[in-house]
Please model this.
Amino acid sequence: MADRSQPELPLQAVAPRRRRRPILAAGLVLAGLGLGLAGCGRPKPERRQLQVWTLDLAPKFNDTINGAIAAWERQHPEVDVVWTDVPWGSVERKLLAAVFARTAPDVVNLNPLFAANLASKGGLLPLDSLLPPGAEASYLPRLWQAGRSAGPDGRPQQFTVPWYLTVRITLANTGLLRQAGYTAPPRRWEEVPAYAEAVKRKTGRYALFVTVVPDDSAELLESMVQMGVTLLDGRQRAAFNSPAGRRAFAFWTDLYRRGLLPREVVSQGYRRAIELYQSGELAQVGSGAEFLRSIQTNAPRIAAATRPFPPLTGASGDANVAVMNLAVPKQTRLPREALSLALFLTDATNQARFAEQARVLPSSKQALRQLEANLRRERPATPNEALVQKARLLSADTLERARVLVPASPGVKRLQAIVYTQLQRAMLGQLSSDAALAEAERQWNAYATARWP
Model:
């Protein structure tokens, strides 16, 4: 399944290619004519081509993307933009192959983790020296900061421009909540054990499902950060074997051993959480606001009892945000034009238009204000639409205290795999939670020492 660090879009995974002008073919046809007219005037400068890759946006958003590209081209008449949409599941393979073959695009749509990994290997262009003065002021500060990561020399630099995003809120079955004696789900992780016990005892169902499958959702790793755990230090060594880390490992181990989490959390991913919630076996699920529409379609009875609530957080109140960025591969021959297009696609006007159509959130401050104002003016025609409106407003409000919780560090997927695997062992009783945490520390540091001596 897709990495849940990607914002959720109800899109089709297809990969059409858009070529605004057939410049190569036209050039061959006209070459002979040009010989006889060479003395009739000064030749026009050769047009340049800019390759742009996005993820899972075509065909649903063809008009929006094509319109933005055409507007940028009118401001840069010497450049033709070629847009290619790539399925999410194949972008890493395709982009790495393109980098190896020296055919990488000039602008590419990436999530923070893959961008950080590519930047650490010298695959992305540092943007600091190319950015216009004050460019970052247009974006939400925490989202802009999430685009900084270590280059090959280990020095943090700006490698990406934030684009669209989603935040995780809680969607809860109010019928199960009432049976368990609650009017709303908990707001803090520390409140979850008593809540989970009440749901299980009084309803026979489970309160929540957070997977520990190594290559699936990062939600559990994010929960550790919310619980006060620092994952890595400045040298990329493990910092999670700490009092907060021991409490977090014990928290999840204890919930599982007490039977307060579904047994499948160690073997099935986030998709199973969706299935359990829609079948009425789960009191709540963490997701984006637009998931409400899927529940309304797939499980109308559960949808009728579902209400949006603020997400689970820790003492700091920080929520999680999933971001999609635009980056410029280092191989580009048009670095300034590539960055110009990335900034144009993510300006307030274009972000507001795309966010409204895609029903995501913008990273532009001005576009976010406009989106909130538009949502408040809406007069939904049905109760279902009114509920989605409420969830989207809650998402926008949550964005004020949201950040990318898991640092976009190279190798962070390896970190997740190590932590989850050892936590599984603790849950299954193979190790104590403290011993499992110490083993995760040992394995990560062995990896980090080899990669960053």
